[in-house]
Structures are given as C-alpha cells and as structure tokens.
Design goal:
The complex is a heterodimer of chains A (about 550) and B (about 450).
Chain A (H helix, E strand, L loop, with lengths): L2 H13 L3 E2 L13 E7 L7 E7 L6 E4 L6 H23 L2 E9 L6 E9 L5 E3 L2 H15 L18 H14 L8 E3 H8 E2 L10 H8 L7 H10 L18 H24 L3 H41 L7 H20 L11 H25 L1 H9 L3 E10 L13 E6 L10 E6 L2 E11 L8 E7 L20 E5 L46
Helix pairs in contact in A: 3-4, 4-10, 5-9, 6-7, 8-9, 11-12
Chain B lengths: L1 H10 L2 H18 L4 E5 L6 H14 L4 E5 L2 H14 L5 E4 L17 E4 L10 E5 H4 L8 E6 L7 H7 L3 E8 L26 H8 L5 E3 L2 E2 L7 H8 L6 E2 L7 E4 L7 H12 L1 E6 L9 H16 L2 E5 L2 E6 L5 E5 L2 H13 L6 E4 H4 L4 E7 L10 H4 L1 H7 L3 E10 L2 H7 L17 H12 L3 E3 L3
Parallel strand pairs in B: 1-7, 1-8, 2-5, 2-6, 3-4, 3-5, 6-7, 9-10, 12-18, 12-19, 15-16, 15-17, 17-18
Antiparallel strand pairs in B: 11-13, 13-14
Classes of the chains: A alpha+beta (about 550), B alpha/beta (about 450).
C-alpha cells in the first residue's frame, strides 16, 4: 500500500468517514448498465441459486432455480438469463461508427489502413463484488462448450438454444475484466474502493454493505459503527439484515430458511409426480407452485438489498466527474466488444479451454502495458493520485525559477534549454534520469542535469533539467514549448505512454522451446475423467 | 607436508572440477545432438567467463552466433569481455534507437560494429543484443547457434518472442536469483508448461526434459566463509564450493575500532565474513531513518578506517575504496534514502541499489538492509528466496547485514500461505526456510546497537 493510501486510511479511521482517494472517476460508467446480482448454492460449484438482473433499477428481473441440483431447472435459469442479457448485448451491436485499423495485408505483408466498424457504445455489466466476477467467468466456462440440439442432435443433455452464446459472451467479459482499466465488466466494490479509502482492511472492503457504510454513513453514525452493523447485524430470526453481496449466501440463511424451503419444494414435486388423478394433481400443483413462490421470495429477499446497494454505489460514483483518459480506455473496451461481436458473427468456435502459448503471452503483454498506461493516466487525470506519486518520489511539482537557452552539439544544433525548478517534493532523481511532463496532452521529455544548492531552509530543492524534445524542428523552440520563469510545472519519472511490444510469432509458428505449434496432442478433445475408486462410492 | 597437500588436492581441486564441467558443457554445445544445453551457475561461478569462452569457440568453429542477454549493461559487458579475449573477432552490437543506447567504451573497440538494424550486422561472427531488442528482429534464415545469458531471469514470453531466431542454444543462468516477475496477475496460466510469467528455463525444460543440464561446481567470488551458508540456504540440493580456502582472503582495517556499533560489526565481518548489526525491534516505515543511517554509518566508517583486502589475486593488499563497496536494499525508495544519507555523510561512488539491479555484480564488501527489517508483515515479495540470495552473495570478502531485531518472530508469525497451484513445481527452499537459515547463521555474528 502506498504511503498516501495509508494516510488516507488513517484519516478515515480518525474521522469515521471514508476519505476520497480520487477527485475524478477513473472508470467509464454507462448511462444504462446491466446489473447482475447472482447467488450460488453452497457446496455446489457452478450451481446458480438465482439472480436479480436488469438495467432498470426499479424493475429487476428475478430468476430463481428452485432446486439447484436439477439440471433441467438450471438450464431453464440459464436460458432465462440469456433472454435478458443477450438482447441487451445485441442492442449495442448494431449502432456502429466508421473507424480505421491497421492490418497486415496478406498479399504484400505491409501494414495498411482498413475501414472497419466500431460499435458506438458497448454494453456494460456490473456485479457487486470480485467474487461476482469469478462467478461470471465460471458461468461462461460452464456454458460455452454446451451443445444445443440444433448443433448436435445426438448430444445427451442439449442446452437451450442461446445458452452457449451467453457462455461465450460471459467468457469474453470475464477475460476483459482482467485487463487493467477496462470497464466492460466491473465489480462495484473494486471501483468504489479505488475512489474512496476506508478505515477497514482491503479484505473488508470487499463487503459492499460495509464499504458503502464507510463512504456514506447514515446521519449521526460513524463509518466504523455502520460498517460493523452492515457486516454483523441480525434480526430476531438470526438472519443478517444486510445479506452478503454474494454469490455465496449466509449459512444461517441456507440452513434455517433455504434448506427447509427446498425440501418442501422437493416433497411437493414428488407428490405431484405420484398424483393419480387430475383433481389431486391440481391440488398438488398448487402446493408446488406455492413452494416455488416461497423460494423465489427468499431469493429476492437476499438479492434485493444488494441490488439497491449496487445502484446506490453507482449513484455515488456518478457524483464524480469522469477522468479525462477514461473515455480513451472505454474506446478500447468498445474495440474489444466489437471484436468479439465480429467473431461471433463470423461463426468462430468458442474460446478454447486453455490459452495456447502465444495467446497467453500476448494477453500478459497487453495487460502489463494497460497496467502501466492506467497508472500513468490516472496520475495525469487526477491531482490527488499525482500527489501520491509525488509523495513516493515518482513525480515532482514546482515553480520554474530560471530558463537558460542552450543547444545540442552537432551539425544542426537543436534547442536544449536548461530549466531550473524549485520543488518541495523529493523525487528519486539519479544521473541522467528522464522525466516527463504533459504538454498539450503529449509527453515532453527532459533529462535530469543536477541539483543546485537550495537557498532556503524550507526543505525545498532546486532541480535543473534539460528539455530534449517537442520543441519543433527549428533552431528556436516553438512558442509555448519551453516552460517560462514563474510557470508551475509537474514532471513525472514514469513514462506517460507505453510502447507496443514486439510482435510474437503466430500460434502455428510456436517454437520448439514452447512445445511447437499446438497440434492435436496439445489440445485433447476432453481430458479423461479420473477413474472411479472405492472412496468415490460411499 | 607435501604429501598432505597432494592428498587434499586429490580430494577436491576446485580448478580441475570447474575445468571438467566447462569441458563437458563445451562438448555438448559444440558436438552434442540436442537443440539446447542448460547450465546452472551459482553466484560468481564464472558464468560470464563460460559465455565468453563458448562464444569464442563457436565463432572459431565457424558457426554464426547470436547472444541474448537481458539488460544493456550485460550486453556491453559481454562485448567488452569478448574484445578483451580476442580483439580480432568481428562482433556486432545490436542496440535500440534511443539516445545513448550503449556504453561509450565500445566506440574504442575496432572490431565491434554497432547498429540499430540487424541487417547491417549480418555476416559478423557474433551479434549481441538484449532479448527486448532481438524480439523486433526478423530473419529469413535462423542463426545456427545462440547463447542465452541470465536465462533464469528471462521470462518465458520473452523467449517465445526470440526462439524462432536460432536453431540451437546454450542457456546459462543462476536458478537461485530473483525470478522474473510480471506487474499484473498471471495466476490464470499457472501450471501451464508455457506459463508466460515463468522463467524461460522452466518452460524450456517442461517441453524438452531430455536436454543436457550442467552445473558449475565452484564459486570463485564467494569466500570460504560465505559459500557454505549460501549453498546450504539457497542451493540445498545442488551444493557448490568456494574456489578459495579460509586463509586465502583477508580484510583488515588500519584504524582500530572506536567501540561503536558500526566499528564492532565491521571487525566482526572482517574476521568472520559476516556481520549483523542489530537495531532495537520496532515497526518502521520502509525507509526506516535509523536503519538507513546505520547503513550509511557502516559505509562511512569502512572508508574512514582504511580497509585493505588481500586475496588470491595478488600478494599485496588492495585498498578498500568506495567503488569496491555496495549497499543492497529491497526497495527503490530505500536505496534512494540510503543514497541521500551517504551524501549527507560525504560518501560518494558507493553503489547503492535494489537486489534486482545488483544481480550479476560483484564487490569486496556489501552492506545489506535486510528486506524484513522493521516490517509488521512478511509478504511474498519480502520473503522471496532470490532476493535474499542476491543480497547475500555479491561479496568477495564480507557482508554486513543491518536489521531490526525480531525478524525471527516475524517469520514465525507469517508461515507461507501462498495458494498451491496445480502443476507448478514447488520451489525449494522457500523464502521462509532460507530466511531462517541465514538469520540463524547471522545470529552468531551479531552486534547489538542503539543508535
């Protein structure tokens, strides 16, 4: 944790309120995001219990699996989920703008510009917490390889028509969420704790209720008390007043309320199946419906508080103006969305079970580049973030006290003015370290020349820099390209823009060091199941 | 006496043992049938010497050779060493198009051609560059042979980018040093044989387990006082020896001790090769002002007291000057704080850097700010085996560790809790174990000090 984050947390403890960690919003928020509050069944990985989903805060759609172990009911749930999510995604797929992209011409091998479509906006998906992100990935993985009856008439348990497609989109969103700074799929607790520092641990920050209690405590109550209540307060029946954001549920809820309700449902279903005549079947159907309605009410009672909390959190984030570079990053999200839309339309197969060597290396390189870019952009967009970098010696701000014109040696001397800056910061400047400042949105580089003895005793230091670029081609620097005496400047020791990495070989050119091109042996159709042992049969 | 000496030599002659290994490596490289040869080298075991010798022999055999190193400093160093050994050899230094891309010393070497374009270096016997630069090179015809230096510090994805450039390669590196890292999570690929965040050698051997692997058996850098500890703590299954004996190296100070903590710890280190200057237990910020000042004081006194180092390199003691001393830290801000403290005491030219940047360097005496000093927690970063290994294995004579008391308890309070990843070879020893081993040894050379 950086020093400024520690200070902010200490301040949050002493004031009883979360402290701002940012002055602008560093993630794009859609005007109409799709919120998904999923619940899962305890002890059954990948068995959803239900969800609230929708883009209208007043009218969420409640989806419930009354018996989560029943494969048919689970498919019905996923099909319903697809009916909500896919039309939402499709509604963004058709509004496009023209854009250019450079591609390698297959015939000449040269980079050429091609006209392509770029979706004008992209659908944004919000889940309450980081565990929700993992759940989206899990659902994606469990759905994308399913076969529908139409794809394969022989398949033993055909999936409803649009379920595999939902799996592919969830997989895409889950992978995209791993790219730093992306906003296609956001976990609200992550975004909130990026913008506010609370007086609790980062682990506790993953509890949405507690996090909101610190950020926006009720009148007359401190954040710490409110957070404690949000985590622990229970009603007379022993149920949590603020259920966890999921997808895991509270054990007290599972044991005391859910298990009996599911049991009742199972009994009603068995009874209906055993009904001998129409009249008793009608009665028993009534019982079954009542049992199902009870489970639906239970699931709604656990998801609705989280649903409301998510929208409240979004409102809080909405009070911050969007950071200047957030739109940039959102554009890359739109490219990502458009790219996957095109792959789906082109009939490409679902994402493979595992990345091959080249894909994995490319993804890692992209994410590292985006991480560095995000850190730089957040600092440039937000003086509070920059303050943290200044405090850690990675940037410094100050006043220009002197500018001396100088020129480079060589046939065509270029301007290399020496700029003296007085700063109260303590940058970690070493010999010939490069520093950068933002000049009209573009980085201008300078070289550290040395320290001058400071005249004052106020702890400030005098830094001499040599500006080395962005001054035009002439002998005299272009107007406004060199700082002037009295200017307030801020230089960073980190670069503002990231260079693209080297191009990796194509997957079919994977070298021998990495196992060669992925062939049949590298991608077995399905790993064989473990053999059944005695311990498997109790 | 003569007989006794011969007998001892028959038991272990470091020079001969190292020679045999080197011959075997060169044989596999030049005449072997495998596409790759892997060489593990403990600290100071003559890795660079081996790389230079292999490069010269490959060039002599008429095989066009590319050399891949990890940093520009390593590349420049190799070029200089090659030119020293054989000034006639045509060497190409492929560099980036940034300003000041290579060491100016290369301009004085007549047979070294420098260029930012690989095509301009075509046909030279040896072409050297960093992995990052090689990744941008495209060739129609791959090189017959490559040498990959510091292969354990190279990431798997970096090897993926350059492996298409060569047919066969010699991979040389130190498995005990810092593993490569990524600034974003890569758990998603943990357990895959080609995990892009793993080291190049891990991936190479996962796919080519039949490749011959060699190990250099002798550390020429570490003194007899340090090799057993470093070997036992960081290379428990692949032990190595020091090339020199206990009496071969000596560190002495002209000015006697004034009885202060720094002076006493210096005497202890001069005597035994190790010294632990222990400050009172306390939780501190990373740039612990007292510990930083203690580090600076130790360096200042070392210079003031007129240190002299005698070694197997010559009969006369050489003065212990600032350029033969290094300070190692875990974090960059700690290094910056130490530099500032040294400047305040009027000390210049002492190398102060983080473990990452000290890799591959060698000094007479090192002063180390212990990575866990003053911390309330022991994170994976601070426990990393390689970090401590680098810091504890840079010296030819002595190593002084400055640390707050209580690290042993801290370790006991923080057992390793990293999640176990399926399919990932567990690295042994883990940092927890190695830290305990080093601390228990250092405890025998402890000097308590109140600033």
């Amino acid at each position: 944790m950086s020093l400024i984050a520690t200070l902010a947390r200490l301040e949050a403890v002493s004031t009883g309120r979360a402290q701002p960690a940012a002055t602008v919003r560093h993630r794009h928020l859609s005007a109409r995001p799709l919120v998904l509050v999923p619940l899962t069944t305890a002890g059954e990985a990948g068995a959803p219990l239900g969800a609230l989903v929708g883009d209208d805060r007043d009218a969420p759609r409640l989806l419930v699996v009354p018996q989560p172990r029943d494969r048919d009911l689970r498919f019905a749930f996923l099909a319903e989920l697809a009916d909500v999510v896919l039309p939402f995604i499709d509604s963004y797929a058709d509004t496009v703008e023209a854009a250019e992209r450079s591609e390698t011409d297959p015939e000449t091998g040269k980079r050429v510009k091609v006209e392509v479509e770029l979706c004008a906006d992209a659908p944004q998906l919000i889940v309450p917490s980081r565990a929700g992100l993992d759940f989206v990935r899990l659902l994606g993985r469990s759905m994308r390889f399913r076969r529908t009856a139409e794809q394969d008439p022989e398949t033993p348990y055909p999936a409803p028509p649009r379920v595999p497609l939902l799996g592919r989109w969830f997989t895409h969103y889950g992978e995209r969420a791993r790219v730093p700074g992306s906003a296609l799929l956001l976990a609200l607790t992550d975004v909130l704790s990026r913008h506010w520092a609370t007086g609790q641990s980062t682990l506790e920050d993953q509890h949405l209720g507690a996090l909101l209690a610190w950020i926006d405590p009720p009148d007359g109550e401190s954040g710490a008390e409110a957070a404690m209540r949000a985590e622990l307060a229970r009603d007379a029946q022993g149920q949590l007043l603020w259920p966890p954001a999921g997808p895991a549920t509270d054990p007290a809820f599972d044991n005391k309320l859910l298990a009996p309700a599911i049991e009742k449902y199972d009994r009603a279903r068995t009874a209906l199946a055993a009904a001998e005549d129409g009249e008793s079947a009608d009665d028993r159907l009534g019982e079954l419906t009542a049992a199902e309605r009870e489970i639906r009410a239970l699931v709604e009672s656990r998801t609705r508080p989280t649903w409301d909390a998510v929208w409240r959190g979004l409102d809080l984030l909405g009070t911050l103006p969007e950071g200047a570079h957030a739109a940039d990053r959102w554009t890359r999200d739109r490219w990502s969305f458009t790219g996957h839309r095109d792959r789906v339309v082109a009939g490409e197969p679902p994402q493979p079970r595992r990345d091959d060597a080249v894909t994995a290396a490319n993804k890692l390189a992209t994410r590292e580049r985006e991480q560095a870019r995000l850190e730089a952009q957040e600092a440039l967009d937000d003086p509070l973030v920059m303050a943290g970098r200044r405090l850690s010696g990675e940037a410094f701000a100050g006043e220009v006290t002197d500018v001396v014109m100088a020129y480079s040696e060589g046939k065509r001397p270029s301007p290399r003015p020496l700029v003296t800056v007085r700063t109260d910061d303590r940058p970690q400047l070493g010999e010939r370290v490069k520093v950068y400042r933002s000049l009209g949105g573009k980085p201008q580089a300078a070289e550290f020349v040395g320290h001058e003895d400071s005249p004052g005793t106020d702890g400030s230091s005098i830094v001499v820099l040599r500006v080395v670029d962005k001054m035009g081609r002439g002998k005299e620097p272009e107007a406004g390209s060199v700082p002037e005496r009295g200017d307030l400047v801020c230089f960073t020791l980190f670069e503002h823009e990231q260079r693209g990495g080297a191009k990796l070989p194509d997957a079919d050119q994977t070298p021998w060091t990495h196992g060669g091109p992925p062939g049949e042996e590298a991608a077995p159709a399905l790993p064989a199941a473990d053999p059944v042992t005695e311990e498997d049969v109790l | 006496m003569n007989t006794a000496h011969t007998q001892q030599a028959a038991v272990f002659d470091p020079g001969a043992a190292a020679g045999r290994t080197t011959d075997a490596i060169l044989h596999d490289t030049l005449h072997g049938t495998h596409r790759g040869v892997v060489v593990d080298s403990p600290p100071g075991a003559g890795k660079s010497t081996l790389v230079v010798r292999a490069a010269l022999e490959l060039a002599e055999a008429g095989r066009p050779l590319m050399v891949i190193a990890q940093t520009n400093a390593q590349v420049d160093d190799l070029v200089v060493r090659l030119a020293e050994k054989n000034p006639e050899l045509p060497v190409g230094r492929l560099h980036s198009s940034d300003s000041d891309p290579y060491d100016k010393a290369l301009d004085e070497l007549t047979n070294v051609r420098k260029s930012a374009k690989a095509a301009e270096l075509a046909g030279l016997d040896v072409v050297i560059s960093t992995a990052a630069k090689w990744a941008h090179v495209k060739v129609d015809e791959p090189w017959r042979h490559a040498i990959v230096d510091e292969a354990y510090q190279m990431r798997s994805d970096a090897l993926l980018a350059v492996a298409g450039l060569f047919e066969r390669a010699l991979f040389v590196g130190d498995p005990g040093q810092l593993d490569p890292f990524s600034i974003v999570g890569a758990e998603q690929w943990a357990g895959l044989s080609y995990d892009p965040s793993a080291s190049a050698v891990t991936t190479l051997l996962a796919h080519n387990p039949e490749l011959p692997q060699h190990r250099l058996p002798v550390s020429w850098r570490l003194p007899a006082s340090a090799a057993p500890l470093v070997s036992a703590a960081f290379y428990p299954y692949t032990p190595f020896r020091s090339g020199t004996g206990h009496g071969d190296r000596k560190l002495a100070f002209a000015v006697p001790s004034d009885g202060s903590g720094p002076d006493r710890v210096l005497d202890e280190a001069a005597e035994s090769g190790w010294g632990l200057l222990e400050l009172p237990a306390r939780h501190t910020p990373r740039t612990d002002p007292e510990a930083v000042r203690a580090v600076a004081m130790v360096v200042r006194r070392m210079l003031d007291r007129g240190g002299a180092a005698t070694s197997e390199r010559g009969p006369e003691p050489t003065p212990l000057t600032a350029d033969r001393i290094a300070v190692g830290t875990a974090h960059r801000d700690q290094a910056a704080a130490v530099r500032a403290a040294l400047a305040e005491l009027g000390v210049a030219d002492v190398t102060v850097d983080t473990a990452n940047r000290l890799q591959g360097r060698e000094f007479d005496v090192t002063v180390v700010l212990h990575p866990l000093s003053g911390r309330p927690d022991a994170t994976a970063f601070h426990l990393e085996t390689g970090r401590l290994c680098v810091l504890a294995s840079r010296h030819r004579h002595a190593c002084v560790v400055v640390c707050r008391a209580g690290v042993t308890d801290l370790l006991d309070d923080h057992p390793s809790t990293e999640p176990v990843q399926l399919g990932v070879t567990v690295k042994f020893p883990d940092g927890w174990e190695a830290n305990h081993a080093v601390l228990s040894h250092l405890a025998e050379h402890r000097v308590a000090w109140r600033p």
